Give the backbone structure.
Amino acid sequence: MDTLWKGKEKAHDATHFQDLDPPITYRSILSANLGVRDPLRVIALCDSDAFYAACEMVRLNILDKPLVVLQWALLIAVNYEARKFGITRMMPLKEAKERCPGLIVVHVATYKEGEPEPGYWENPDTKTHKVSLDLYRRESIKVLHVYKEGLPENTEIEKASIDEAFFDLTRPVRQILLHRFPYLAQPPDDAPDGLDTPLPAPPDLSWHQASTVIPIDPRAEDIEAVQFSPQTWHDVALSIGAELMHQVRQEIKMKLNYTTSAGIARNKFLAKLCASHRKPMGQTILRNASIPNYLLGLPFQKIRFLGGKLGVALADEFDVSSVAELLPISLESMQQRFGEESIWVYQVLRGIDYTEVKAKSALNKSMLAAKNLPTPITNIADGYQWIRVLAAELALRLTEARETTPSLWPKTIVLHARNILDRDGRKSKQAPWPFVREVTVDVVAGAANKLWREFCDARAPMKVTGVSLGFTGIEGVETGLKRLDAFLKKPSSKREFDEAEDCTSAEKPVSTRGNSFVCKRCGHKATLSPSATRSDAEREEALSKLRLEHEDFHVALELSRVPEVDAAARPAKRRKKKDEGIAKFFTRDSRDA
Ligand code: TTP
Ligand code: CA
Ligand code: CA
C-alpha cells in the first residue's frame, strides 16, 4: 500500500510499519478464529462524555446547562456546556464560578455518619463524610447492559473503567461482510493459490457517514481524493464496525440519555487513542494506512500505559519525547533496559497491540470502601464512627448487587488500617463472613467492630490515617457449590476441614412430606404456599426448588468456613512479581475498577 508513505517529507523507515498491511486472503475471511493477529480485526473503545457530570444531569433532569461535579474542593467532572466557558477539571471552584456565574455545582453524594444511604448534603466535609460513587457505578452498569443488548451476541465486551468499554467486533463484522459480499465466501475456480489467494480489491464504497476518518497524511493537499474511500477490506471492516458502534451509541442516548464517543481501529490501544479525537458525541475511525503519520507526530505519553512512570523512564533513558524518536531504538536495547516485556512498547510504537478484549467476570470478586482520614484516629473509640460509615457503604453495595444476583455472598470481611506510629504500618484483619440474607449496616458494622478491636492494641500508641473495609471472595452460590463439589471429590485425607461432611452427607439432608419438608440438620420446616391448581409434578418441582434453596443456605454456611488465602492475604507475593521488568512502571488507575 504505497499511499501509506506518500506525502511524508522526512521519509520514515517504512519497515517499522510493515505489520499494517497484511495480506487478506480467502482463508483470512473464512477462518472462524484468527485471534489477535486477524488481519480483519476490528476493535472499538467507547467512553462516556463528561460521565459523572452526565449522571448528575440525568438525575437532576438538567439538560444543556453548564454543570460541574465537585469532590471536596476539586472539580472532577465538567460537562461540555461548562467547557465552553473555559472551565476545566481541577480548576479551582472560585475561578470556575467567575468564568460562568450560572454554573450548577453538584457535590458528589456522600455517606454521613448515622445515615444508611449516601445523600447530597449541604456542605459535606471530608472530616465527617465519605464520598460515594454508587450512582456512577450503577449508571455504568446500565450503560454496559445497553451495550450488551444492543450489539450482536458474538461481540466480546470488556468493561475497562467506570465509563469505558472495549469491544471486539471482529466476528460480527465478518458475518456482515460475508453477508454483504457473498462472493468473498469462496475463491474463484481459477484462483492461483486457492484459499490463500488474496481477496479482490473492494468496490468503491464510502465510509460510515457519521464517523470521522483520520486522514492518511493530514498535510496532503488531496486529502479528499486519497482518504475518503475505503481501499482495503480491513477499511470496509472498520466502517462496518463503525455502523455497529454508532447504532449502540444512539441506543444509549435514547434509553439513558448519556452521550458517548468511540474510537474504532485495529487494536485496543489505537481504539482508545482515537476515541478522544472527536468528543463529545463523536466517533473516529483510524484505518491502518493512517497509523504511521498519526503515531509519528504523537508525544508517546499519550499512549495508554505510556503516560505514567514508564513514559517518564523511557523519556529519561533515551532522551526522547515522541514516537518518531523512539522508533529507531532497537528491541534489544529496549529489553536490556526495561526487561523482556518491553517488547510491548516496541510493538505499540509500530501500531501493534495483541492485547485481547476479554469480558471480565460479571461478578466483582471484591468490594472495598475506603477512607483517608484528615483527622487521624488516635484511640479505639474514635474508630467506630468511621467503621459505621464504611459498613453502611458496603451493606448498600452488596444489597444492590444482590438485586441482580440474589445468591451473591462474600466469603470474607477484611479491615485494613494504616497506623503511622506502627513500624509495620498497614495491617489487615479478616474474618469469615457468615451467610446472612439481609446484610444490614448493623451486621456489617458488628463484624467490622470486632476486627477493629483486634487491630487496636490498647498498649501501643496509634495514629490511624486511613481505614478500609471490604468483602472478598464474592461469589454466586452456584460457583460456591461447584467449588465445594470439586473440593469434596478430593480424597478425604486432602481435605482441610471436617465440617464439610455435614453438608453433603450421603443421606438426603431433608425429608419431604406432602407440601412441606423438614431439614434434618437444622430442623427448619419449609412449606409450600397452598395452591389449588398445582399438579403433583408441579408440587414436586416447587418443593425441590425450596429444598435446593435451603441446601444452598447450608453450603454457603459451610463454605464461609473454608479457609482460603485470598487476594487480601497475598500482597507480598504479588508485589514481587509486579516489581519485575516494565511491570513496576504500571500503576493501577483507581477508576479502572
Ligand atoms: P474521564 O472519562 O477521564 O472524563 P469525563 O468522562 O469526565 O470527560 P470526557 O468527556 O473527557 O471523557 O473520567 C470519567 C469520570 O471519572 C469523570 O466523569 C470523573 C471521574 N474522574 C475522577 O474522579 N478523577 C479524575 O482525575 C478523572 C480523570 C476522572
Ligand atoms: Ca469519559
Ligand atoms: Ca474514561
Residues 51-132 form a domain with the MutS, DNA mismatch repair protein, domain I fold (CATH 3.40.1170.60). Residues 47-52, 76-77, 162-163, 279-280, 591 surround thymidine-5'-triphosphate (ligand 1) (CB under 6 Å). DSSP finds 20 helices and 18 strands in the chain. The mean pLDDT is 82.
